[in-house]
């Protein structure tokens, strides 16, 4: 932990960040930095700068000292110092301060822009390990582009999952058809028929958006026994947030529970209470509040507290959902530590929780739950 | 009040618990106890123990001292002591500490597993009274099984409501067809036609799931002038929570308001702000946050505070929604007292509320509102 | 600021109230006052008095001293004193204490009951300015009643918008067809066909409820470059709140963003986190939590804090949404100042925000954002 957020005593030690992306490994000017800050369009006529947000305040308050600046340094000072140090040094400082033991890295979004899982891990520390999370829709599109027969798609995806070293599969159903996934695995003929209907025109590339196909991909991961991550809730303007309420997954979760394969609901904000309910009533459902934590900055404690109302303590995970900017790995992790610690400490102060239990819950959520869900072992 | 939660000075005196169930009157081993704790599946491969939750912490913190244990006793110590004392002694201590004046008991769920309203009242205290809440769907299914002509079902239900001593009817529309009830009473012919379509196969029993029939039953209670309780929101994995948002009731509430019969929205979490809105804009709508209070444990104050934002003070009720475990009557009641008191006290400390008003609101919510809504009298 | 809420140091100076209505300029007895208090039906058999609510507490606590009474005066004392002073003196005190620099007044609801924008401004202070917000559906209905050819409606509305001095248009799509507005401007022929289908019977008046027509009106404002206010969320029992979730606007917002015309989401409670998300991902979207602030009274800080989690600081506005009662202008404004100040001050105390930034955010939200969004100039 950085000394800028020093008091998270119940949530110490290396964390497992069970969902993040790669870093952009180049120096960034202000527009490029702002475009990567949040789910919005960067700076804008009406928005002004994305620094005028809880995330912007958090960067100026907590990241500035890691670059040797005073807390609350202004945006230009911050970005000037960032460029002077160089992106690699900044990444080493931010990821080092985050104290990350293990990273699970989604490699399916803008892979040409960002670095590999191994590169993130190397910047995070000598002992940090990384694992791949493989994206289902991208994998399927690649296979179709390579000439896979649509009737064989499911089998081919399953084989590719087996060949990969991925510890989890990820579905972006939320961006493609919404979360109302089918409560039974579609047949290969149904998949082929759906693909036929949405095959690309000559010269265009495959883009899987059909509910039958997206559902089949999610079921393929479940049947392969591979933990399934699902984007839920909060995202950019391409998402239809109403269709991303995790409650739309209810029938799918009811149908998949007998497989005992973890289904991990990512982000969830502003539906995090809904996700916590699902994690309570379905044994195989896990959740996090990644992405929301660094975006809500110093107000993120509330999001964590809302979530703890119902979530079983063994099913809450940590993720940063960081993409591109080193600051997001640090803030996502440090603010989550701090917010969870603050909630636990408040319960201890009110004598609603023992110190020993608080420390145990901190360890579970920070690392042990993810280690167990993904079978990461200790090696 | 137990001395473990001693400070709820604005919410003192015997409460009316306007919605609970019976107790399981036998000693319980750990798996049996855990299976009754919350809306989840009990212990599980990924969940571990349901004690690892806010409810589990609350049992260990607040129920343990009632059994003569230290606060925060571990689960095995707690359950061992519980078995040594015997379920009846535990029930007397828990229900006694809850200080319940009147219980309204739903007798329609797993009646073979749980004790009668009179038995709950006897365990709760010498002066505790109980009343029955009659379940509409169960009553109708019983009548059909007894050979009632589907065309006569509505009349037969109404007669059975009149013959019963129930002070309220309850609908579990949420579990059967969702809350989008019809905004006019279906005719007997429409009910008969719907029942004909869903009549059971030979050897099977009636299970009413049709929206027309469920709506007709709710309308029957309204027309009979019997307060209507509705399960809303939070429930187990059989529920489709999206269909249980109380806002789906808007058209039904608009149509029924002219009858001046109380409609009482139960639980409501995580849609409790929605329910509070309905209680503000419809005169005949009441609400509670039962079930959510003991499940969210030491974090339940937030749920109560969210609710108070809009709910008229004369339309918030207390319920535990306890089922089976004596602990849930105690925690549901004690935590609600404490949470409501804490919100009121905070307002008094900030000089936003006078002490006299705080005490008046406490009395209203704890008992007077329910007494008025159900016409319970003082006798 | 009144000395009853003296500490809002980060949110001082005259505000822009970017959405309110006129005052009822006559003395009111208790039933008449209560009927205007909130979105409910006034006093009622089950509700008792609307004074038994957070709003009622706020009036007794914060408005009573402005009438020379003790804080927490009871309702009858308050209303007696109010009548003795006379409505005009009460209005001068309340609106003066609110410290309003500029009012944007919606003139489309019950115009015979309430005073004009200029009259509100005159009561608010010597230097207070007012501007009209023109209601789209009312304008269109007026034009149709005047004999405008349905095929020409869009052109006629656009001309009337241009002729008016309104600084914004307002749509009450929420009350007419829900917020799922079309993501492209309907053609004049489509509008005419839709109007033909819903033309009034002889002797009846036009009431526009068709989604195509309501969408066309919203698009007309966008194409005219006039900022578009939309009622979202919280309203009276005529609204179907589920259809008023701002997320239903997603496709419309995606389609309109290229016009760079501000779209201003009003009220938003209990979907204010949803609105804040939209304000983050769409550059042209602004929001407020008006109406909810005075209704939730001393609990309104939470609503403001929820909102700040994601909203860009340059896109949060202040509105009272006051209608009829002078108290609502005062409370809507004073409580918003106080709540926003409290959140900012708490962040400053925790060293998560600098004092200079807190003051800047206070100024932006209180006045500068609205001045910029509506091009109000400083003159």
Automatic annotation (TrEMBL), chains A, B, C:
One Pfam family named in its UniProt record:
Amidohydro_2
- Residue ranges of the Amidohydrolase-related domain? 215-376
GO molecular function annotation: hydrolase activity
**Domain of life of the native organism:** Bacteria
What is the name of the protein in this document? Amidohydrolase
Report the source organism: Nocardioides islandensis
């Amino acid at each position: 932990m950085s000394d800028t957020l020093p008091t998270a005593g119940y949530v110490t030690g290396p964390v497992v960040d069970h969902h993040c992306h790669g870093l952009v490994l180049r120096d960034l000017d202000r527009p490029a930095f702002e475009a990567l800050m949040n789910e919005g369009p960067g700076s804008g006529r009406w928005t002004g700068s994305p620094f005028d947000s809880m995330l912007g305040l958090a960067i100026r308050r907590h990241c500035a000292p890691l670059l040797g600046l005073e807390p609350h340094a202004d945006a230009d000072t911050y970005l000037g110092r960032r460029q002077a140090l160089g992106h690699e040094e900044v990444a080493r400082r931010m990821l080092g301060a985050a104290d990350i033991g293990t990273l699970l890295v989604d490699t399916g979004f803008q892979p040409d822009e960002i670095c590999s899982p191994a590169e993130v891990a190397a910047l995070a520390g000598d002992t940090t390990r990384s694992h791949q999370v493989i994206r289902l829709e991208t994998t399927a599109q690649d296979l179709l582009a390579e000439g896979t027969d649509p009737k064989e798609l499911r089998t081919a995806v399953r084989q590719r999952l087996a060949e990969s070293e991925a510890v989890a599969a990820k579905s972006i159903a939320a961006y493609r058809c919404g979360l109302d996934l089918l409560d039974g695995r579609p047949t290969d003929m149904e998949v082929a028929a759906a693909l036929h209907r949405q095959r690309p025109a000559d010269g265009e590339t495959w883009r899987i958006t059909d509910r039958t196909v997206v559902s089949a991909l999610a079921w393929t991961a479940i049947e392969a026994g591979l933990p399934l991550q699902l984007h839920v809730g909060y995202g950019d303007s391409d998402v239809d947030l109403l269709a991303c309420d995790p409650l739309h997954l209810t029938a799918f979760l009811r149908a998949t529970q007998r497989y005992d394969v973890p289904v991990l609901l990512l982000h969830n904000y502003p539906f995090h209470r809904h996700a916590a309910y699902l994690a309570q009533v379905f044994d195989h459902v896990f959740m996090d509040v990644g992405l929301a934590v660094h975006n809500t900055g110093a107000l993120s404690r509330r999001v964590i507290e809302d979530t703890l109302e119902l979530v079983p303590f063994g099913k809450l995970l940590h993720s940063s959902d960081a993409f591109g900017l080193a600051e997001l790995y640090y803030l996502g992790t440090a603010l989550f530590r701090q917010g969870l610690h603050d909630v636990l400490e408040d319960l201890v102060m009110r004598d609603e929780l023992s110190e020993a239990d608080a420390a145990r819950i901190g360890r579970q959520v920070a690392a042990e739950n993810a280690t167990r869900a993904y079978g990461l072992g200790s090696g």
